[in-house]
Automatic annotation (TrEMBL):
Entry EC number(s): 2.5.1.54
Protein species of origin: Ornithinimicrobium pekingense
Name under which the protein is recorded: Phospho-2-dehydro-3-deoxyheptonate aldolase
Chain segments carrying region Disordered: 1-24
Family, similarity comment: Belongs to the class-II DAHP synthase family.
Length: 457
């Protein structure tokens, strides 16, 4: 995964601190049996960290480049990872998709792409409703495999703290494979480029051929000049991220770094707080304010200047480069009305954080067949509106955050090889929100690369 220099590798993994977490209101938390939970927490807090403090520091440096306008970040993966989907082929194909997108974006941006998987911990979901009713039977809503099962039975929907340990092990197995894939030659620029050529030979050909041709020339130049042989071209830095939602998972994973005495959430390199849990005086914002990892906060269309400044004061009072990322998810129809004004109202402060576009969560609707879906065209339109907003405000559009899979699912409609509303039932596999499939993800990368290359006003 990330390239680890000797001083990072030599970093002691840190001790489990005893922290009296303040008793603040926390939304969207499971209701566990307290005795069962206590047993699990005692075990989880002794488990090895999944990431090193030094790796999180390195990602913070990379995100500092994003906030300074010298890098772009690609964050992507499932809405909800599931325990059953932790398989070699699934992980490989998701990594492959992200790497393919990153090559295209690198070309378009002419900047380093900071690659972050929404994976190895994305096992918990906030829900609109606490319960779900089917055929007159009401049960607790599915909240992700870290909390309960998707199967619609009382036993499966029970909040089971043992699942925290299963999520830890699944995250550990995922990260292990990701580290292998991204450092062991699989990520070789030439193979990734060859996979992209496969995409362009399909229906995308006419629309994206010109850019594909330019990328091909650039890679051929690297090969001809011998640069493609370099070790750096055979591996990539790749980081993990998930929503820090279930505090009974995140808190026991916090460790004190022996070098500095500071706290890190060792469940992931990057964690974010979601739109539904970012209350200024709530436990989630308090949690991320205490850890040293680079962190994100989602912002929906209701976020105003005052809220954003107060979030900055809480989470990033020193305005440390790379520390805080705002992930905006305004909706394609709203972004142009709301985002430029918000950015402008922040003045200089808007330059002290990174801005990333989540074009998924503001664009969800239910199809006539009853599937939760999104239109590819709306996703693209929100990214376009995001770029235009930053151009207007003079701030850096720092990246995209996307729900995607490497599989050929039919969950979002549209794209150059279109999924129609009638196709949704063919391969609708997500247990929560609809993801872009492999082709739609690559197509998004080409469209965004064009925006990066040509600029959007
Ligand atoms: O991923 C985000 C949320 O968990 C999801 O959009 C909530 O969806 P719901 O409205 O089906 O609960
Ligand atoms: C829950 C999510 O998003 P948001 O907090 O923006 O609704 C998510 O990213 O899956
Ligand atoms: Mn989602």
């Amino acid at each position: 995964m990330v390239r680890v220099s000797t001083d990072i590798a030599g970093t002691p993994v840190g001790s489990t601190p005893s922290i009296d977490w303040p008793d603040l209101p926390a939304r969207q938390q499971p209701s566990w049996d307290p005795a069962e939970l206590a047993q699990v927490l005692a075990v989880l807090s002794t488990y090895p960290p999944l990431v090193f403090a030094g790796e999180a520091d390195l990602l913070r440096q990379r995100m500092a480049e994003v906030s300074a306008g010298r890098a772009f970040t690609l964050q992507g993966g499932d809405c909800a990872e599931t325990l059953a989907d932790v398989t070699g082929p699934n992980i490989r194909d998701r990594i492959k998709t992200i790497l393919q997108m990153a090559v295209v974006l690198t070309y378009g941006a002419g900047m380093p792409i900071v690659k972050v998987g929404r994976m190895a911990g994305q096992f918990a979901k906030p829900r609109s409703s606490d319960s779900e009713t089917r055929d007159g039977v009401t049960l607790p809503a599915y909240r992700g495999d870290m909390v309960n099962g998707f199967e619609f039975t009382e036993a499966s929907r029970r909040h089971d703290p043992d699942r925290l340990l299963r999520a830890y092990h699944a995250s550990s197995a995922t990260l292990n494979l990701v580290r292998g894939f991204t450092s062991g030659g699989f990520a070789d620029l030439r193979s990734v480029h060859a996979w992209n050529k496969g995409f362009i030979q399909g229906p995308a050909q006419a629309r994206y051929e010109q850019m594909a041709h330019q990328i091909d020339r650039a890679v051929r130049f690297l090969e001809a000049s011998g640069v493609a042989e370099a070790e750096e071209m055979r591996r990539v830095e790749f980081y993990s991220a998930h929503e820090a939602l279930v505090l009974d998972y995140e808190r026991p994973m916090v460790r004190r770094d022996h070098r500095t005495g500071l706290l890190y959430d060792t469940s992931s390199h990057f964690v974010w707080v979601g739109e539904r849990t970012r209350d200024l005086d709530g436990a989630h914002i308090d949690f991320v304010s205490r850890i040293r990892n680079p962190v994100g906060v989602k912002l929906g269309p209701s976020a105003d200047r005052d809220t954003v400044l107060r979030l900055m004061d809480k989470v990033d009072p020193e305005r440390e480069p790379g520390r805080l990322t705002f992930i905006t998810r305004m909706g394609a129809g709203t972004v142009r009305d709301v985002l430029p004004a918000l950015l402008t109202s922040l003045g200089e402060e808007a330059h002290r954080v990174s801005w990333v576009c989540d074009p998924m969560h503001g664009n969800t609707f239910t199809s006539p067949s009853g599937h939760k879906t999104r239109r590819f065209e709306d996703v693209v339109d929100e990214v376009r509106g995001f770029f235009a907003s930053h151009a207007e405000a003079g701030t850096h559009p720092g990246g995209i955050h996307v729900e995607l899979t490497g599989n050929d699912v039919t969950e979002c409609v549209g794209g150059v090889n279109p999924v129609d509303l009638d196709d949704l039932g063919l391969r609708y596999e997500t247990l929560c929100d609809p993801r872009l499939n492999h082709q739609q993800s690559l197509e998004l990368a080409f469209v965004v690369a064009e925006m990066l290359e040509k600029g959007v006003r």
